[in-house]
Amino acid sequence: MKLDIVKNRFIFLALSALLLLPGIVAMIYSTITYPTHTPLKVGIDYTGGTTLQYGVKEAITNDKLASVRSSLEKGGIENPYLQIINVNSQQDTDLKSILSIRTKFIDEGSTEQEQITNIVDSEFDSPELVQVSSVGPTLGMELFKNSLIALSLALVGIVAYLTFRFQFDYALAAILGLVHDTLFVLGVFSILGLVYGVQIDALFVTALLTVIGFSVHDTIVVFDRVRENLKYYSKKMSFGEIMNASINQTLARSINTSLTTLITLLALYFLGGVTTRDFVLAMILGIAIGTYSSIFFCSTLVDVWEDKKVPGKTAA
Amino acid sequence: MKNKLIMFWVIVLLAITSIVVICTKPTKLGLDLVGGSRLVLEAQTSDTIAQITPDMMESLQFAIENRVNKLGVSETVVQRSGEKRLVVEIPDVSDLNQAKAYLGETAELDFRKPVMKNGEAEWEATGLTGKDLSRANLSTNSQNGQWVVDLEFNGEGTKKFADLTKQLVGQPMAIFFNGELQSAPVIREAITGGRAQISGGDSGFVYEEAKKMVDLLNAGALPVPAKIIEENTVGPTLGADSIAKSKIAGAIGLGFVMIFMAIYYRAPGLIADLALVLYGLFLFALFKAIPITLTLAGIAGFILSIGMAVDANILIFERTKEELKAGRTLFTAINSGFDRAFTSIFDSNMTTIITCVILYCCGTSIVKGFALTLAVGVIVSMFSAITITRNFMHLIFGTGKLTHPELFGLKASEINDSFQAVETSREKAKFGILD
Lengths: 316, 435
What we know:
The complex is a heterodimer. Chain A is α+β, with helices and mostly antiparallel strands. Helix content of chain A is 66%, strand content 9%. Chain A is built from nine helices and four strands, in the order H-H-E-H-E-E-H-E-H-H-H-H-H. In chain B, helix 1 (2-24) runs antiparallel to helix 10 (365-397) and helix 9 (330-362) packs antiparallel against helix 10 (365-397). Chains A and B meet through helix 3, strand 2, strand 4, helix 5 and helix 7 of A and strand 2, strand 11, helix 7, helix 8 and helix 9 of B.
């Protein structure tokens, strides 16, 4: 199998635009319509919410926890965070454990609260509601801003290193590839937020970091091959031909690498816990698009720029 | 060949050390994975503070976060709850009693001067307090070797302190910490350098006492007194049910990866699997030895580093296959496979390490956990993929001509016999020059 990327380069650039566009539209729409004015639907890690604590007279098992979680989700309670609090035996009470349910802000005595209480009632033997309190965000805006600043600095570091080892063109293409991949994942989650009410939590930031790491890693391997081939064949072949050859030589490796990472992630998605499912989904999307962009997007960009530098030269 | 055997035994020794570390040291897991302790702090009103305002709560939260960080407890969650409460969740691994001792303390340092009131000597506040410090340090007295606390004043503090000591020449000046007299040295001359020392009286400080004072002074005083009103242990924030399932899923996923490597790359794939197992051992031992508190974010970094470790092997094998197809002998093919894949592996991993260093220095706690595990993972993966895999390949396949191409997943017909392979020297191969 030989792919001719260079010949079809504008098709691939158009395909990338097509992949990103719906997500970008969704993010703009969300920013305007959501009360939080964010491009994605943000969860209680960012906004804060309400914690309901139910005291029960038994030790809560994992099965019980899973069953409460699925009942709550079926009942329309969005992304509940369940946590077991073990009551110290010294304390003057016959309660053994407390089930803490964190969800979006709900008013005391509202129908939602009643609904949650009903669900908990059906799972345990006469639980008692011991506390309802509002909780602040664990990942405030300040923390979020700090993370963004750190990330921007990291990007500058990547550009500097790649300019030093390759050329500025390649560095720029790698960064654009990274933006391409991040925008895609953000876009898909924005759409999922609008359609299925999927919220992003603190873990989402980590998933994005992973995607970014993978994206650059993948792109560099392709560029390294281009750099090597340029050394030996630049007199015999055009840049377009070299680019094509390099992509084809690294193709098996590119696909196998993402395949091995995807195998682990797919196992985690289908067999793993519910609470990390969105986190894993973000990584799956990011790694798939990262492989796509390093083969079809970043290399095409470098090829287009290279043509601009040498007037009159046509690709392949 | 002799060097290769030595390297082999070094690897075996490292593996044994890792297993010993894994068996003897505890695993540090974060709140999200195993849970920990949950303390509820309540801001207290006092004579001077009639009402708790949201602003006060905000600065209280900041001060508590600051203290938790000084304590070196990683991955702690501090959250506002209701109007005057803070929920602090600390991972299982930390010393709860120490944490409790740190969180409630107010850390008020003040300097007082002697006055005579109704014929009795009393200490009177001077307005010079812990707020005027720029930092505190732990050190020892050069004469008697006792622990002391060195204080450095900020600009304003230096001036205040100079004025006060000038005024008190020949008289004692008292240093109070949390309302307790620490020491009352007699001032011999005005001190203008902006430095002072608390000696802890005749008996001196015990190390823990002095260390705690330094940490508390550096973290700043609490804007409002706070009391621990509730203390419980909590299960993992991600839900124990989910984590139990994810553990199994992760193991199944890794199993599939190993099967895939063995089927696609044959003999080298099996060697890579072995290298991957060793990689897992080394990394896990390092996490325990450093120690790193593992959270889900950290595990994401771990998964990514496994991906990159496998990738390094894949790069090398694809390259070795190409060289074998060109008709080179096993020894040359393996060496040039490694050498030519090296620049890709080096550059992509360097970029990752640079990113991690920046994220670790500037990022917030979740980002830090991720960056640290990923960086450690990538460094170990370069060792495992390059040193271990190469060593095993050479030991197993030797130096001859490729006699069993199926071991590499190649067909005999694919091997180019017309190519008269000349052994490439290692030095040349490193620069990508093949004869």
